[in-house]
């Protein structure tokens, strides 16, 4: 008999919900190559929660606990989730199984659960640092190739990882304080801990399902940047000046979602030449360069046609949405579009 009884506590109900939430996420995402890492994470989370539930409902009759070893899977799972999501050209392969060797080694050592959990906490810190590094590389890559980076940005994923890291640290503190904590505070903390993990799980699934766009050229951008410069750095300023004149003359920056490939098609230059000339000759990324031109264009229109509303000005300047309009102005000027443009419209 798997369960000695059905005396479920509140925390057990949360665990059951987490199991079904994980399996539902798998059902929603299965077949999507880019979500392989998340599918693995959801499956492992459901398995871990099932073991946790079983062990708690059979306290005293379980001879060997395996859940402490699962603490060594959390770091690798989230690292692989982020890597495959951001770099789909590096899908999960059998060599990735090496990340879980530590879990297998820890299985016979779970009687020393505090040492196993400490190793799990250190593993999580290392793997989370690697995941954050992938996020930084992703945002740098989209800034190199796309002007409208807002739809493809994953700040919510970054924030989710930060929250998850905080929860994991708090959970480690909770486990180590269990021997000195008194009831009911110990049970309440554990319940709140499980609820928080369930919320983070749901946020991750919903966030990925609703993510409007993802950039797929991280490896390509980094490989291109690693190649030798196409020209001498002394030529960068001249090439950039010529390119800048063409972009301003034809107002290509007014096209929503303009990217390096589009500019390459207009000018006949290679993507690498354009990227190199803007970075070296202009001293900015492609996204910052295009968005600064859009800000200047919006300022000109605010002065020339003060009766127009800001959203119309934004669309004509090349911004694809109100959210990107606000985000770009806040980043480049430190002000909202209204704070920056309204004084220009009134002549103040």
Automatic annotation (TrEMBL):
Q: Which UniProt keywords apply?
A: DNA-binding, Membrane, Transcription, Transcription regulation, Transmembrane, Transmembrane helix
**Which GO molecular function entries does the Swiss-Prot or TrEMBL record give?**
DNA-binding transcription factor activity; sequence-specific DNA binding
Q: What InterPro entries does UniProt report for this protein, alphabetically?
A: Homeodomain-like_sf, HTH_AraC, HTH_AraC-typ_CS, Tscrpt_reg_AraC-type_HTH
Domain HTH araC/xylS-type residue range list: 237-343
* Ranges that cross the membrane: 12-30, 37-54, 66-88, 100-127, 156-177, 189-209
Q: What is the protein's given name?
A: HTH araC/xylS-type domain-containing protein
Organism name: Alteromonas lipolytica
